[in-house]
């Protein structure tokens, strides 16, 4: 029976970080939690790691050059080794259905490839992301150390497979892949038939090292909760490693429910469609005309407030409003509640701060808040085809909601929660290493 693991998550501007303890002795590397990909990778080489066009993709970058805070150095680890071209993981990272391909590329003869006697390392790879990011590097194996439900218990997993990345495009920080593919952390650690959960801190805790919330993997993540609502987990034939749900409607305020296109709860013959749950995407994305319908419904509810058109032009967000500043957020102007309706009669009303966020400091007792939803078309080139998910439920809108990925029963659970308070009551603190 696999022991559960609990790792603290810290928030930065556009995602959630967990610490990877890799190598012997351990080197601690901060990486993004990404439920929308499989490969776990870390920057390798403090002086040689190169991130191309990363100025706009780094949380606190103020200069034209980017340097990661920490990178993994295989030469300093006595347990580090390159993965073999014969390994399943090598075929996976090269997206090859033919197990002989990597060894042939590595220079092995057909005879040694078939016999499984080729000793060459896995060739360098290029791994791409849906938003256009690319990472290149080599596949490595080393010891990873994980915390149990008791923070003092450390579990060592030898020969964990990950990418040792030397250069990237638009990907400045490493990634912990939590998808369902063979390369992912849940898969390598044997948790694909169990599950995991997370409860993302509110954005006000961004970059605050004193607050963290738990990423729980294993049986502890699936303990029954009376208030948890579960919706079926859908599976795409083309993209089987992603976590999809089915969205049936969206309600804004007291207006009638907006019916969504069927592609948000089913897949076409090519496997495109569904509503993707993705911690690696910051903002929730909807397709048009649904996105426009949501904007229209919000505008009808917000006629008492002036639009901030200049902020909309600067930020690219579609709806920004000038609203009064209140000392207590609970007594702030009432933005219309937004509710997602999923399959199985699951309704999730988002906290107001998950939808509208202050884009600047208050001025004359007024602050500008913008709706942090985006259109799927916003991130597509003109004329490009909308392959993949029909919509995405991003991490910003998952704040203060416990999300349970019940892989055993193929369902996803939602429960609104004050994640900071819940973590404090459970004694969750950031591990120092």
Automatic annotation (TrEMBL):
<protein>
    <submittedName>
        <fullName>Uncharacterized protein</fullName>
    </submittedName>
</protein>
């Amino acid at each position: 029976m696999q022991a559960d693991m609990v790792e603290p998550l810290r928030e930065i501007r556009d995602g959630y970080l967990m610490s990877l303890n890799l190598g012997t002795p351990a080197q601690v590397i901060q990486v993004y939690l990404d439920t929308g990909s499989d490969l776990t990778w870390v920057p390798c080489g403090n002086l040689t790691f190169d991130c191309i066009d990363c100025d706009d993709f780094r949380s606190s970058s103020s200069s034209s050059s980017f340097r990661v805070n920490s990178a993994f150095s295989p030469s300093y680890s006595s347990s580090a080794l390159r993965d073999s071209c014969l390994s399943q993981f090598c075929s996976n990272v090269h997206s090859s259905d033919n197990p002989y391909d990597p060894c042939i590329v590595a220079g092995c003869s057909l005879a040694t490839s078939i016999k499984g006697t080729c000793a060459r390392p896995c060739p360098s790879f290029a791994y791409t992301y849906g938003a256009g990011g690319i990472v290149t590097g080599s596949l490595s194996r080393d010891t990873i150390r994980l915390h149990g439900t008791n923070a003092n218990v450390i579990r060592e997993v030898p020969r964990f497979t990950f990418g040792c990345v030397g250069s990237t495009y638009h990907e400045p920080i490493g990634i912990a892949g939590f998808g369902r593919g063979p390369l992912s952390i849940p898969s390598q650690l044997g948790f694909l038939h169990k599950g995991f959960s997370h409860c993302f801190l509110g954005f006000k805790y961004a970059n605050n090292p004193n607050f963290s919330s738990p990423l729980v993997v294993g049986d502890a993540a699936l303990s029954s909760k009376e208030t948890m609502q579960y919706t079926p987990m859908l599976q795409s034939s083309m993209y089987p490693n992603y976590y999809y749900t089915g969205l049936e409607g969206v309600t804004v305020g007291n207006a009638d429910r907006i019916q969504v296109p069927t592609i948000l709860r089913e897949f076409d013959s090519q496997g495109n469609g569904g509503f993707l749950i993705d911690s690696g995407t910051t903002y929730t994305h909807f397709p048009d005309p649904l996105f426009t319908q949501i904007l229209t419904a919000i505008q009808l509810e917000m006629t008492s407030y002036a639009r901030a058109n200049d902020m909309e032009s600067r930020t690219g967000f579609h709806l920004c409003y000038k609203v009064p500043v209140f000392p207590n957020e609970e007594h702030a102007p009432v933005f219309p509640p937004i509710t997602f309706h999923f399959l199985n009669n699951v309704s999730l009303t988002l906290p107001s701060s998950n939808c509208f966020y202050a884009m600047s400091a208050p001025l004359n007792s007024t602050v500008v808040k913008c709706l942090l939803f985006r259109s799927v078309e916003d991130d597509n080139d003109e004329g490009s085809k909308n392959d993949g998910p029909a919509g995405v439920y991003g991490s910003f809108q998952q704040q203060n909601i416990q999300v349970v990925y019940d892989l055993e029963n193929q369902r996803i659970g939602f429960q609104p929660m004050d994640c900071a308070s819940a973590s404090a009551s459970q004694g969750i603190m950031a591990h120092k290493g």
